[in-house]
Amino acid sequence: MSYIKAISFYLPERIVTNEELLEEFPEWSADKVASKVGVLSRHLAAQGETAGDMAEKAARRLFEEHGISPACVDFVLLCTQSPDYFLPSTACILQHRLGIPTSAGALDYNLGCSGCIYGLMLADALVSAGTARNVLLLTAETYQKYLHPSDKSNRSIFGDGAAACLVSTEGVAEIGRFSYGTDGSGARHLIMETGAARHREPLGTESMDDEGHMRRSDYLYMDGGAIMHFTLNRVPSLIKELEKINDGEGADYYVFHQANKFILNTLRKVCGIPKEKFYINVEETGNTVSSTIFIALRQCMDAGAIQSGMRVMVAGFGVGLSWGGTVLRF
Predict the structure, then answer these.
(1) At what angle do helices 224-245 and 261-271 cross, to 10 degrees?
(2) What is the pTM of this model?
(3) Which of 185 and 24 is assigned the larger pLDDT?
(4) Which of 1, 62, 24 is nearest to 147 (CA)?
(5) Residues labelled as active-site residues
(6) What are phi and psi of 79, to 5 degrees?
(7) How far is CA 201 from CA 4, 82, 85, 191, 313, in A?
(8) If 0-12 CB within 10 Å is exposed, 13-18 middle and 19+ buried, where does residue 325 land?
(9) Given CA atoms 104, 296, 312, 34 in this order, what sign does their dihedral have?
(10) pLDDT tens digit sequence for 232-251
(11) DSSP structure string for 185-245
């Protein structure tokens, strides 16, 4: 049995508003961006600020806000698709920078929108097996660095950020059973093609997709229609499975990956979830990828939307393609 003991998050100092984006794309309107994706502003990492830097700041905030000593951490997990280096693992670097004992394990794992859930699953397994007592789970992403300057769609959606969560033998929320899945046949729908071993050097290719969006091999590409179809196809069955394996009951509140307002509203309606039980708040952060769920949970706890005795369903879905969820008992 394992628990979430504490959550903190960090957002970069630089804020880009819709009005600033519209200076570059005058054919857009601020109302259109706000109504469709629900994002009014987003945080961008500074030029020299990495996912590792942001994860460190989120972890230090966790230690300070909750009186947690780095000495108690015996495993570090970092979820990122924008590591500081190909090697070594950024988690190893963070172990040293954060003053965590050398007896601790540390590793990165490459996952995006469902990364928070998969991290909770790994941390839960480590604690439940008695391998670790306190797992520092970090999520950090700098997707904005992967975007082409003229990619107005994705630039309006994504924001940079990091979160830190301590999974322990005791805490504020008991972690329930997990359901998860993978469909790698859809990998091309959300991809960064160059830079790694498959295509180490830039390819410089461009093509138009079926929705009229430019697909550039050297920058992040997302097929919004395909991701939407995937979400509506997979997540409703995920919700039913989570209810089944977690005592056969529904949830008091639902906190899902904050992809964008349109996807979340559509998903809520398809699944028949009451509006007052479903969290949507991407206005000031945008889609921070693996950090959205932790940021949302902390915001809900601070606002009193999540209280003791509540069952909260959390679910992530996206790049991979992958999905997963669990139920937290506060």
Answers:
(1) 40
(2) 0.95
(3) 185
(4) 24
(5) 113, 257, 287
(6) -95, 120
(7) 41, 17, 16, 16, 42
(8) buried
(9) negative
(10) 999 999 999 999 999 877 89
(11) GGGGGEE--SSSSTT-S----EEE-TTS-EEETTS-EE-HHHHHHHHHHHHHHHHHHHHHH
